[in-house]
Amino acid sequence: MSIYRRTSVDAALYVLRDIGRSMTETQRQVTTGLRVEKASDNGAYWAISSILKSDQAAQSAIRDALGLAAATMDTANAAIDSSIDLVSQIKAKLVAATESGVDKDKVNDDITQLKAQLRSVSQSATFNSDNWVAIDDADDPSKPREIPASFTRYADGTVSVGTLSYDVDLAPVGLTSSKDARYLIDDRTTGTGEYGVLTSQYFSTEAGASQNYVMLKSAGNTTGQVEIGVSASTTSSQVNEMIAVVDKMLGQMTTVGASFGALEKRITLQNDFAQSLDDSYSRGISRLIDADMEERSSRLTALQTQQQLALQSLNIANATYDTVRQLFQNL
């Protein structure tokens, strides 16, 4: 007679193996904090979370771009504010030059220093090699400045990157005018300085001045242009014309400053929204793939207890089997 079935032992082993598999899975979830780590865990949730993670990374890049743009706008705004103050001082010097008996040459010395500071402020207003108030041959003034501002995934799966724009050339057709002077200095050698408030002769033309007055001469074609300044031979009529031109320049500079301020505000709002989207992505991904750590920890403790009980059951089953086997051996 022989014993060929160990039902109780096999059952105990099956239970122990099943508990071991559950413990391995639960320990992995506790260690990684994820209940969906790979496609085999839950294919649908894994695919959705993978796309969301990719979009979240794109949103992070958008936020970085917005932060860089905000810093650039801060720099440009500082240059505009400083330049408005300097041009206001030049206007005051010109007004002083209308007084009888004033030494216009000395007044012009002050104006010359202020103009030099204007160029210095404009050309040094650079952040990360980007200057929004002075342009040269590397820039196309007719194209808007664009800032990556949003990342959108549509229902059909296509994606797009939205931008915030600072339009420079406001005239859709025809020639440019003083309204197109959206920079402080236009130093393009291919132009006449028309896109820079301080280098454009359009303010003088629109003021009806007798000469093409500019605050600063550009690196382009400056034929017929006259830099604002006074001397002993400057007439009161000419000074008054200069004052009128400078006043028009100040008006356009405040327009540029207001546009920069509005764009900076928009950047701040968009950055706040991008942060909210990032938080939403994080919450959504968490709901899909994160493990409930409290529940998983409790589950692990329970499985460890079950494993101990299963081991005891296996030991009892083996002991019983050995006892029966010994009884039959004595027959």
Describe this structure in words.
- The model is unreliable at 1-5 (pLDDT under 50).
- Helix 1 packs antiparallel against helix 6 and helix 2 (43-97) runs antiparallel to helix 5.
- This protein is rod-shaped.
- 60% of the residues lie in helices and 9% in strands.
- By secondary structure, it is mainly alpha-helical.
- It has helices at 7-32, 43-97, 104-124, 202-207, 236-289, 293-329; strands spanning 126-127, 130-131, 134-135, 145-153, 159-166, 185-186, 212-214, 225-227.
- It has a two-stranded antiparallel sheet with strand order 1-2. The chain has a two-stranded parallel ribbon with strand order 3-6. Strands 4-5 form a two-stranded antiparallel sheet.
- It folds into two domains: 15-32 and 295-329; 37-290, f41 fragment of flagellin, N-terminal domain.
